[in-house]
Amino acid sequence: MRRDYDLLIFDWDGTLADSIGRIILSMRTAAIETDLEIRDDTAIKGIIGLGLPEAIRTLYPQISGNQLIDFRQHYADSYMAMDNVPSPLFDGVVESMQAFREDGYRLAVATGKARRGLDRVLKANGWQDYFDSTRAA
């Protein structure tokens, strides 16, 4: 069977892992702690996949440099507080990844997460050696 692709690349948040609720809650918490207007769920969902600084600037184009630093820290603190239990993988992800691997595909993750965050979730899910390549923001 002829394949057009040998490598399949996936995003982590919102594609493989159902981390949307955590991202929304962490963005809301950071906004409150930084005295910024809370954005609605749709706006926050629209930035998933971007690196954190770009995501924050997309939601808050007027944000100052100091606010950006504070927002990032509050977001990280909030997200990490929930990180003792990994975000669940979407239904069918494990089976699909196994089927792709059995079919001879190489698998990769490219994400807007920081390297430290990606490594942490891969390890928590037992997938630290599963992907042929990983790229983080």
UniProtKB/TrEMBL annotation:
One Gene Ontology cellular component term attached to this UniProt record is: cytosol
The alphabetical list of record keywords is: Hydrolase, Metal-binding
Please list which residues make up the signal peptide. none
Entry keyword Hydrolase: yes
Q: Which cofactors must be present for this protein to function?
A: Mg(2+)
Q: Which SUPFAM superfamilies match?
A: HAD-like (SSF56784)
Query: What are this entry's molecular-function GO terms?
Result: metal ion binding; phosphoglycolate phosphatase activity
Q: Which domain of life is it from?
A: Bacteria
UniProt-listed PANTHER family: HYDROLASE-RELATED, PHOSPHOGLYCOLATE PHOSPHATASE
Task: Kindly provide the name given to this protein in its UniProt entry.
Answer: HAD family hydrolase
